[in-house]
Amino acid sequence: MYQPANNRYEQMEYKRCGNSGVMLPRVALGLWQNFGTVNPIDNQREIIRKAFDLGITHFDLANNYGPEPGSAERNFGQILEMDFKGYRDEMLISTKAGYTMWQGPYGDWGSRKYLISSLDQSLKRMNLDYVDIFYHHRPDPNTPLEETCEALSHLVRQGKALYVGLSNYRPEEAKKAIDILKENKTPCLIHQPRYNMFDRWVEDGLLDLLEEEGVGSICFSPLAQGVLSDKYIAGIPQDSRAVKNYFLKETDITDEKRKKVIGLNEIAKERGQTLAQMALTWVLRNDRVTTVLIGASRPSQIEDNVAIVNQPKLSKEELDKIEKILSDK
Known about the structure:
With about 325 residues, this protein is of the alpha/beta class.
C-alpha cells in the first residue's frame, strides 16, 4: 500500500494563483504524452507517486491526452483508485476540451454541446465527481465566445468544476474571455500558454494582461519538447521524440538551434545545473508565471526538475548571457 512521504510539503514551494485563494506548486506535472496506452501503467504509477512525494499537488490532463485520446485520463483514474483514495482533497486536478476528441460535428472546438459532453466523459474516465480546473483548450473562431464562456460557467455552477481556465488564447481573445467570465461571476483562474526560451510570444502582452486581471499562469513545453536539454547536443538519438514522430520533428532541431543549446548548456554547467533545470528556472524567473508544467517518462526526471526549487535564481549577468545567445543569428 502506497504511503506518501511525510515531508512532501517541505520539498516544494507554492505560489498564489492570481487573485484567488489557490496555491499552486511551482512545478506541476502534465500527463500529455507519457500516460497513455503506449506506456506501462506501473511506470505511470511510479511517476505520479514520486511527484506527490515531492510536493507536486497539481496534475494536468486533457480529454485527448494519450495516445490514444482519453487513455491518460482513464489511466490516471485507475492510479487514483489504487493509490490516492484518501488524498483527493490534497490534489488539484485539471482537464481540458477544445481539440478533436470524437467523430462528428460535436466532438471538437468550443460549443456548449462539446464542452459539457466532454467534461462528463472526462469525469467518468477518471471516476471523479468534479475537477478542480476545467480549461477551454484553444479559441474557437466559429463559436461565439459568449457561448463557450457560458458553458464553462455552467459547469462551475453545476459543481463539475471548481474553477475555469483558458489555454492558447492570445491577449486580445483572452481579454474578451476574462471579461465575460467575470460578468458570469466565474472568474478565470488561470491561463495555460506555451512558453520557453525559443517560444516567447507570451511576453508580447499576455503576461501583462494576466497580471492586470489577477489571473494566474501555468506554462507548458518549458523545455521545447526536450530541445532545451542536453539530449540533442551531440545529435539526434534514435530513441528521441524527434525520431519517434511526436510533436517534435527532426527538422525542428536546426544547426542554429543546436548551437544556441550548446551555449546555454555551458551557462547551466557554470551554475551547477543541467540545461533542463536552467530552462525551468528561466521560465520561473518572472513572478508573473505562477507555475511551470513538466512532463516525465521516469521518476528520476521528477526529482531532477523539482530540485530547481532549492537552486539559486538566475542573476542579471546570467540572464544577459542567455539573452545574447538567444538573440544571436
